[in-house]
Amino acid sequence: MLVLNPFLLPLHLVTGNHDAPEALVGGFGGTRFLGGGRLTSYVVEHPAFTVVVLDSWVPGSPGGRLGSGQVAWLGRALAERPGVPAFVCLHHPPVPVGIPFLDAMGLADGPALAEVVAAHPRVVRVLAGHVHRPVTAPFAGSTVAVAPSTYRQSGLVLREGVPGYPDEPPGFLLHVRPGAPAGAAWVTHTVPTSAPGVSR
Residue 115: CB partners within 8 Å, gap ≥ 6? Predict the structure, then answer.
């Protein structure tokens, strides 16, 4: 918590496949990092955008699943604040990324998620992680943006086999709306953590 508290940008935690949801809630429940609540699925309403966080964790499995209850809850959450851009966040990408080893542990109910996202054009990004490398893909009228790892990256292995960890820099994604005029598109930048600085 001491490391995260000084962080100035909005920071909302998402349960990963190596995490324990109860530990996440135990450590961060009631703080801004879990939207002020004690659940691993939550909504945060910022003035200019909404963040909806989903929990795709499956006990004892590297793959993910949302479940029908959570998918229905997402639909209700996205029905609020029509016209305000929304980011839907989860750990497992809802589309194949082209790396067979990682695609075998993807999101089981990606099509169900796609139905909800397609019904809500205000979703400007579906944000994911899990694969430890930056990936973008169209998804249900929106865009999936998979963040690189802040630790180490997976190799680009487009065939069977376990991807190694090449010497690629860790990083994160930065989502901005240049100038923020009405109707302006959001753009996504991949930023290495070793970058000398990002000025606002």
Answer: 140
